[in-house]
Amino acid sequence: MSTGNISDASLKYFQDNKIKVLLEEAMHDVIMQKPEDPLSFLLAHFEKRTPLRLIIAGPPGCGKGTQCELLESHYGIKHLSVGDLLRQEVDSGSEVGQKIAPFVKEGKLVPDDLFVDLVIKRIKEIESLHQGWVLDGFPRSRAQSIYLQRAGISPQKFLYIDLPDSVATERALSRVFDPNTRKTYNTASAPPPDGVQTVKKIDDSPEAVGMRLKYFAARKDELIECYSPFYVRIDGTLDTNGVFQEIKEQIDSLEIVKLM
Length: 260
Description:
Blueprint: H1 8-16, H2 19-33, H3 38-45, E1 53-57, H4 64-75, E2 78-81, H5 82-92, H6 95-105, H7 112-128, E3 133-136, H8 142-150, E4 157-162, H9 165-173, E5 175-177, E6 184-186, H10 206-226, E7 231-235, H11 240-252, H12 255-259
Parallel strand pairs: 1-3, 1-4, 2-3, 4-7
Antiparallel strand pairs: 5-6
Helix pairs in contact: 4-11, 5-6, 9-10
Protein name: Adenylate kinase/AAA domain containing protein, putative
Family: Belongs to the adenylate kinase family.
GO molecular function: AMP kinase activity; ATP binding
């Protein structure tokens, strides 16, 4: 059976050689870069590998940061932590950083209009170098996902680490981090090595964790709906390696990975 004017043989060729994926990825890069000479840009594009674009979401304490670090190491992509990006902006003393500082220091959510452009700018910097990325902690709402979509930014996978609130709370309250390396540990399941001095994050107090859980729960469904074509549920009750293996299986199943 043929499809329109396309023969069965042509359709099979189209599918077997991942033409649809190639064209979608090429169009994404054209929208992001807006080159003056689109034809030359596309010719150069097809000579390069296609970078991964991932979003990891989930409640506080689900292990997003840890999984992003594993993905960064395994696939050679950039881990873009919005929390770290905000702290860096505050430390820079910029005008935006000064406006963000009170929210970061008190563990409160930063208003979208103060930081979304920072995230988009950083993603575009990464993509301009033809590198892949994994977004950690963003977007958290439909409005934020729309900001990304309008900027031409979309993931190939939206990985949702699902975890009951009770377990998420317990894990979040057990988190500590090394202020020198910013590496996160869990005093219950993955304690820091002997001699490493750690502190708790301001936004890991019982009050702050509770507030973030409520915020996340109220927006979880709308966020999943926004990314339904890319959505994958990951069992967050598994140990760190188990979660990573589930995520890795999903990424390795991407046709785009076979083209890399």
